[in-house]
Amino acid sequence: MELARSILIVDDEENIRKYLGNSLAQDGFEVYSAQYGKEGLTHLTRKHIDLVLLDLNLPDINGLEVLKEIKKMDVQTNVIIITAYGDISSAVEAIKLGAFDYLTKPFDYNEIKIVIEKALKLISLENRIEVLERQIDRYQYGELITRSRKFYDVLDLVNRIADTTSTVMIYGETGTGKELVAAMIHKKSQRAKMSFITVDCTALPENLLESELFGHEKGSFTGAIGLKRGLFEVAHKGTLFLDEIGDMELKLQAKILRVLESKRFRRVGGEKYLETDVRIIAATNRDLKTLVEKEQFRRDLFYRLNVVPIYLPPLRESKEDIFPLIDYFLQIFNKKIGRKISQVSNEALKYLIDYPWPGNIRELKNVMEHMIITSNTEIINLEALPAEIRGLGQGVVMPAYQGIPAESQKLPDFRKTKKELIEAFEKDYLNKLLGKTDWNISKSAREIHMHRSSFQRLLRKYKLSQNPFLKDS
After folding, report:
1. Rounded Cα–Cα distance for residues 329 and 367 (Å)
2. Cβ atoms within 10 A of the Cβ of 78, count?
3. Which of 88, 119, 268, 291 allows an S-S link to 296, with CB 3.0 to 4.6 Å?
4. Is beta strand 239-243 parallel, antiparallel or unpaired with respect to 279-284?
5. Taking the CB of residue 102, how many other CB atoms lie within 10 A of it?
6. Residues 99, 117: Cα–Cα separation, whole Å
7. Within its chain, how far is the Cα of 277 from the centroid?
8. Can you give the pTM of this predicted structure?
9. Distance CA 159, CA 456 (A)
10. Helix 322-337 vs helix 360-374: angle between axes, to the nearest 10 degrees?
C-alpha cells in the first residue's frame, strides 16, 4: 500500500477549505485544514505534510511569514500560494522565498489539481535524489570476483532467493563482502528499480540509530531542529540492509521486530503510524545463536530474520580468489593513483597466499593500495609488503632470510626494520588482547595497566577502532 499524500489547506475562507478539502479527499489525499496561520503551523509540528495550500491574506499572520516558518521546519515541504488577483507582487515574493507556485482566486479544481500533481512529482524526484545520494555515500555497486567453489554456492543461493520477499541473514567475518551480496540480491529482485539503502548498526548510538531508521519529528529530542524522514520511509518498496545487526541494542531490536510484523512504524516523537513495504536483509560477523543464548539478541527477532541464512567464507578458506582479486585491485589502483604496476613478484605472491587475512577482502584491498602507492618499481616485490605480512612481528629472524647463509645476506636498513618490528609486534599484541577481552576497550586497557586514552591512541594508530567488535565500556 502506498503512503497517502497529505495536504494542508490554510485559508480563512470556510467555503474554500470545504471545496478543496472535499475534492482532494475524493482523489485519495489525506487532507487537513486550518483557518489561521498559527493553527496551520501547529499541524505541521504534529504531522508530516507533503504539500501546503497557503492563502497569503490570513487574519492572524501574514502568509509570507507562515511560508518562512514552514521552510524552517522542513525545506522539503512544498507550498502553493493562494492569493487574490490584485496581489500578484506578494505571490512573486513568495516564489522567491521558496514557494512552488501560486494560484489566483477565483480558480477551479482542475487548475489547482494540475499544479498539485506537478509539486508532488517534484517531491518524488527529490526523494529519489536523496536515496541516490545516500547510496553514493555508503555504497558503490560492483561485481563479485571469485573462483571459489564455496562462493559459487553462495551465488547459486542468491539467484534462487532474490525474487522472493523473504528476509535474509548474511553471516561472515569483517571484509568478506556481506554488503556486496546483499546488493546483488536486491539487484536481481523485482525491487531492483527501487532503492537499496544500507545502515551500519555500529556507526551510531541507539538514539541516533533509531532516528536514522524511523525518522523524527521536529523537537522530539535535543538537536532535532526539523522533521527527518527515516530510512524505512525512504526505502519504501525497496530493500533496507541492516549491517552488523548483532550489535543493535535490545530496545531497538524490539522496534525492528514490530515493523517486520506490522509493516508500520512511527517517527521518533511522532503520533501517526506510517506504512512501509521494505525487504529486510541483515548481516553480522557475530554468532547470533550464541548471542540469543546469552540474552543479548532477541530470540523472536532472530527467527524472523534467519529465514534464509547465507554464510560467506573467509578469504583464508577460499584462497583461489586471491589471484583474481590481486589482478582486479592492480587495475583499480593503477587507474586511481596513476601508476603502471604490472604484477606482483612470485616471492611476494607466496607471502600474500600464506597470510591468513583476518580482515579478508577488505584487508587485501588496503594492502594492495598501500603497495601500489609505495612501490618504486613496476613489479611489487617483497620489500613492498607490509611488515605483518612478511612476518616481521614473529621473531627477529625474518622469513625472507631463512635458509640463506649469513655472509650472503644483505641486511635491511636498521631504523626502518626496528620500527617495522615494533609496529608489527604492537599490532599483533593488540589484536590478541582485544580478542581475549571481546574487544572491550576499558577491560583491555586495565589488563595491561595502561590509561584508557593512551590505549585508544594505539587503536587509532593501527586503525583498530574501526573493528565492529569494538566496545566502549
Report:
1. 10
2. 23
3. 291
4. parallel
5. 20
6. 15
7. 18
8. 0.56
9. 43
10. 50
CA dihedral 452, 458, 463, 464 (to 10 degrees): -50
Cβ–Cβ < 8 Å for 371, 335 = no
The Cα 236–Cα 149 span in angstroms is 35
C-alpha distances (whole Å) from 323 to each of 318, 397, 439 are 11, 28, 32
Assess whether the previous peptide bond of 356 is cis (omega < 30° from 0).
no
What residue has cell string 490554510? 10
Q: Could you identify the residue written with the cell 499544479?
A: 115
On the 0-12 / 13-18 / 19+ scale of CB atoms within 10 A, 140 is exposed
| Buried b / exposed e along 463-472 (16+ C-beta atoms within 10 A) | ebeebbbbee
3-state SS assignment for residue 187: helix
Say which residues have a Cβ less than 8 Å from residue 321's Cβ, sequence separation at least 6: 145, 146, 147, 148, 151, 315, 361
Q: How far is CA 452 from CA 203, 219, 444, 448, in A?
A: 21, 35, 9, 10
3-state class (DSSP) for residue 226: coil
Distance CA 170, CA 168 (A): 6
Closest CA to 346 of 379, 394, 374, 392: 379
Cα distance between residue 259 and residue 87, in whole Å: 48
Residue-by-residue pLDDT tens, the chain, 473 positions = 344 578 999 998 888 889 899 999 988 888 999 999 999 888 887 777 888 999 988 998 888 999 988 887 776 678 998 887 556 677 778 888 888 888 887 777 888 888 888 887 776 555 555 544 444 333 333 457 887 888 888 988 999 999 999 999 999 998 899 999 999 999 999 999 999 999 888 877 777 888 889 988 887 777 777 788 889 988 999 999 999 999 998 989 999 999 999 999 988 888 888 999 999 999 999 999 999 999 999 999 999 999 999 999 999 988 888 888 998 899 889 988 888 898 898 888 888 988 889 889 989 999 999 899 888 888 998 888 888 888 754 444 444 444 444 455 555 666 666 677 777 777 777 877 877 777 777 778 777 777 777 777 788 787 775 443 344 44
